[in-house]
Amino acid sequence: MTATQDIAVTVRSLGKSYKIDHLGLAEPPVEAAEGGSRRRWPWQGKGPRQRMSSEIFWALRDVDFEVPRGKVFGVIGRNGAGKSTLLKILSRITEPTTGMAEIRGRVGSLLEVGTGFHPELSGRENIYLNGTLLGMRRRQIDQVFDAIVDFAEVHRFIDTPVKRYSSGMYVRLAFAVAAHLEPDILIIDEVLAVGDLQFQKKCLGKMKDVTGQGRTVLFVSHSLSTVNSLCDTCMLLENGRVAKIGPTESVTASYFASSEETAGSLLDLTADPPGDRFCRMVGARMVDRSGESVSYAHIDREVGIEMTYELLEPSTGPVIPNFHFFTAGQCAFITSPLPQPPASSGRHQATVWLPARFLNEGTYSVNFAATTPIPQCCHFHVQDQFCFEVIEDLHDEARHGAVHKVPGAVRPQLNWSMR
Amino acid sequence: MSVTRIQPRRRFSFFEWKEIVEYRDLLYFLALRDIKLRYKQTSLGAVWVILQPLVPAVIFAVLFGNFARLPSNGQPYLLMVFTGLIPWGLFSNSIGRAGTSLVANSGLLSKIYFPRLIIPLASMGSVVVDGLVSLGVLVVLLALFGIGLGWHLLAAPFFLLAAFLMGLGLTLIVASLNVYHRDFGYAVPFALQAWNYLTPIVYSSSLIPERWQFLYSLNPTVGLIEGFRWSVLGGVPITVTMMASMLSGLVASLAIGMAVFQKIERGFADIV
């Protein structure tokens, strides 16, 4: 057992419920008249009687965990799992319904960078306003003022209203104030997505400094690469409850396993296969060399994208599958096999192998199509239903120490001659 | 090391004044923001602060004093109106400006924790500054009219403080209710206008017939205005009824304001 003073955050059976009102028509009017309905006022209209029914929804329930001092604690989970609610309670924006949390030390929250910035005020005025909003005293801001301006690189514009700033400058200034807050416990929610790459690198560097100085960080993110490389311990939330707490790697692994059924890298279209009367798509999945389904791709391992399709009659000419790979909204590449012989009717699989160290880290989505060249026709084109993530350890030697996401749609490890 | 305990709060707890003191710099910068923004991109800037109470005072003085020839108890009509407008401005502008402050700052309130009371208090900052400027204008007017001041001037701060606190109480009520029903934001200006006419600002309370005097004095703001006017211009001191209804109005508005505000404060982020 750890001594109490070494624990920065203690959370005990924390819960938060919301009452959700459903506005609906009351089924039997009699019941509504008998008081089943909400109080009604004469001016509320005489139309069909409306009734409010309400239901209690638990956004967070029975959450227990502890964060030791000086550790980086990650919180992951799908949208709506309760991550944001948890952070809102811990940063005291909203009150819990049950349970309690105890925080030892000063909390700095980066829930929303730049909150309270006013476009009409100058950079200087905004630094003071934002700093005091985040809980700093005026004197403390005086001390770090120059450091903030340096960090944000806005020296020349410090007395210009921030409405004249470029969006990059604006975000830099906002983050700079938050980064110089120097709290004992830092709560961060997805802020690393701000600014240009160079600035992101700076921010990640700042975060590493923060943890290096023995501060505690509570980090909520969708970027599993970042969670994997920054967090010591990690908690997985599912539907408001704690699904798993433990070493980051094992928790992220079970996150992938749990997301397998619903999202991303497994597509089952058997219920209503898209296509024409000749060829239909049945499904797709990501596989490794042994043919096992995998839920994410590691950058240094080869993976295959396997599409299953069905020919309703034997083909006379070749059926060519096309896979379109997209990342960040851009088509990274399209790939299709070399000319194929005619195929028999029934199910077929087409798998494209993506070599290790070919894709970049990040999320890719794949569109599937099957075409016949002569006469030219497209049998199906399935879009935006399949995606997968390529992850990479930030300490991977091929990164040469880079902490930000390496730009580019792909990042092939090519052959080099060095003399 | 500070320990923060987060748990469901009890139904009623007192304001954590200590925390508000801790955040006084935020109060200062938020109030400064409101004041700066009020006169951004105006050519006259601070001159508006002087003109705002002065122009209506002159208009009312000409209308009621010169044309309608309403009584002013021997005082210059302009001064009578102006001494009425100062405490009334403190009271009604607070409600007018700070009444919508919670909703206007919902972006802040739903993202960062700080004592929520700071928001309406900061919005009242600009009202207080306007009031101080008006006091300066009053000093100039008194000198111009050659009015001497008496010992009763010592009571002036008391009436101004009362105007501020009564304004604060009602501000808290309006700001809180406005979170649930934005209707209040629309209704309040009308209510204030009606209240204005029921208060002896542009006229003297001696205009009210004797048999209505008692009922009239039950309006808590009557004592506020007549009290301040008496402390500056002298004349008839306020009645016991005026004083009593002023004080009870003050206590009631503060107590109700605090209670309503606290109730809203707890669930604010969930409502907006």
Q: If helices are DSSP runs of H or I spanning 4 or more residues, what is the number of helices of chain A?
A: 8
Distance between the termini of chain B: 33 Å
Residue windows where pLDDT falls under 50 for at least 5 positions of chain A? 25-39
Largest interface pair = A-B, 41 and 32 residues
| CATH class term of the largest domain in chain A | Alpha Beta
CATH homologous superfamily placement of the largest domain in chain A: P-loop containing nucleotide triphosphate hydrolases
How many DSSP-defined strands of chain A?
18
Content of β-strand of chain B: under 5%
Task: Give the structural class of chain A.
Answer: alpha/beta
Q: What is the quaternary state of this protein?
A: heterodimer
**Radius of gyration of chain B (Å):** 20 Å
State the helicity of chain A in percent bands.
Answer: 10-25%
Mean pLDDT of chain A: 80
Q: Give the H and E element order of chain A.
A: EHEEHEEHHHEHEHEEHEEEEEEEEE
User: What is the makeup of the main sheet of chain A?
Assistant: 6 strands, mixed
CATH architecture descriptor of the largest domain in chain A: 3-Layer(aba) Sandwich
Number of discrete domains of chain A: 2
CATH topology of the largest domain in chain A: Rossmann fold
Q: Which of globular, elongated, flat, extended, rod-shaped describes the shape of chain B? A: globular
Biggest sheet details of chain B: none
Average pLDDT taken over every residue of chain B? 88
